[in-house]
Specification:
The chain is mainly β. The chain has a single domain, classed as Beta Barrel (Lipocalin), CATH 2.40.128. Helix content is 9%, strand content 56%. The strands form 2 sheets. The chain has a 12-stranded antiparallel β-barrel with strand order 1-2-3-5-6-7-8-11-12-15-16-17. The radius of gyration is 22 Å and the shape is elongated.
């Protein structure tokens, strides 16, 4: 990951020897801010993009309450000219989510909200000395509205057993709101202090007990006008593609192989563009299984493949989910 060079507009004279170290230290600090924003915001968002069954048709009046623990570990790539080596990150995320299905103009639809909290640790060697930092707190709330446009008419729970799975095509929009912890006086923040939106379309095709899915979308971001040290930070869109294939052992037990590719996200600070275009892919597995009536669990694993910027990360996650139907007449 190469950091943006926005110091050229600040001065036209060469710094004296006594100030070179201070300038390098400032540059390293800004680079670390860029890295942690990527880890806390982009990594968290993109990790959740490996989500099979997102456009499966579900009956109306279905409610889900879920809690998820995930852990992301990996190394961070930096400009080799910087005096920072061996940079590693560990992010622990604790999410609480609620999803409800309903009928929208006669189509199967759902709305979900996720409230995440994060604990992140970053360690490495700076100027030959081991350094470590950490942050803990609430991150940005994530919301999703989805509707199946083809093959997903609204149907009730009693109709579920009679329904024959068919091809579904849907669309969704994800919104990440700037609700996370963000303090101007802090060098490192968990919150992003900006809005992010992702419109997406998705296709799901049943093949007997097998299924195949493909989604494509784009993340777009507003600017952070209160970026570190009074700067303004922007980011170009990130285009994404997901592919999933899996097998249903029975309706509540399935396994999926997942893959995603994303490209874009070049940042700019005060109009100066960074050399940090992302072009990476991830692969993973998802297993969903029932454990008790009304309860199920989901295990996830994913790993990044070699690519441009963003580092090399591995994610493990476990979700405990409870679901229930609305009472008749409600």
């Amino acid at each position: 990951m190469n950091c943006p060079n926005f110091y050229h507009s600040r001065t036209s004279t060469k710094p004296q020897d006594g100030s070179i170290r201070a300038e390098v230290q400032r540059l390293v600090q800004v680079c670390l801010v860029v890295i942690v924003i990527f880890l806390f915001v982009n990594a968290a968002a993109l990790a959740q993009d490996l989500e099979p069954r997102s456009y499966s048709a579900l009956p109306t009046g279905l409610n889900f309450l879920a809690t998820t623990y995930s852990e992301t570990n990996g190394s961070v790539s930096l400009d080799p000219s910087l005096p920072v080596t061996g940079l590693k990150a560990k992010i622990k995320a604790y999410d609480l989510a609620y999803v409800r299905t309903f009928s929208l103009l006669g189509r199967s639809a759902s709305f979900g909200i996720v409230v995440p909290s994060l604990h992140g640790e970053l360690s490495g060697t700076v100027f030959g000395k081991d350094q470590r930092m950490s942050r803990t707190g609430l991150s940005d709330i994530r919301m999703r509205l989805a509707v199946n446009l083809i093959g997903g008419p609204a149907f009730t729970p009693p109709e579920l057993k009679q329904r024959i799975p068919t091809t579904t095509f849907g669309t969704s929009i994800i919104v990440i709101a700037p609700t996370g912890q963000y303090q101007l006086s802090r060098l490192i923040n968990i919150g992003s202090n900006r809005w992010a939106l992702k419109p997406e379309i998705g296709l799901s095709q049943p093949l007997g007990n097998w299924f195949a899915e493909a989604y494509t979308g784009v993340w777009v971001y507003t600017d952070n006008s209160n970026y570190f040290n009074g700067h303004e930070r922007g980011q170009s869109p990130i285009y994404t593609l997901q592919l999933h294939g899996g097998y249903n052992f029975h309706p509540n037990l399935w396994l999926a192989v997942d893959a995603t590719y994303y490209r874009g996200g070049r940042t700019n600070v005060d109009g100066s563009e960074g050399n940090d275009l992302q072009s990476r892919a991830r692969v993973g597995l998802t297993l969903s299984a029932p454990i008790l009536p009304g309860f199920s669990t989901k295990l996830t694993w994913s790993k990044s493949l070699p690519g441009q910027n963003g580092g090399d990360y591995q994610l493990f996650g476990v979700t405990l989910q409870y679901f229930w139907f609305d009472l008749p007449g409600h």
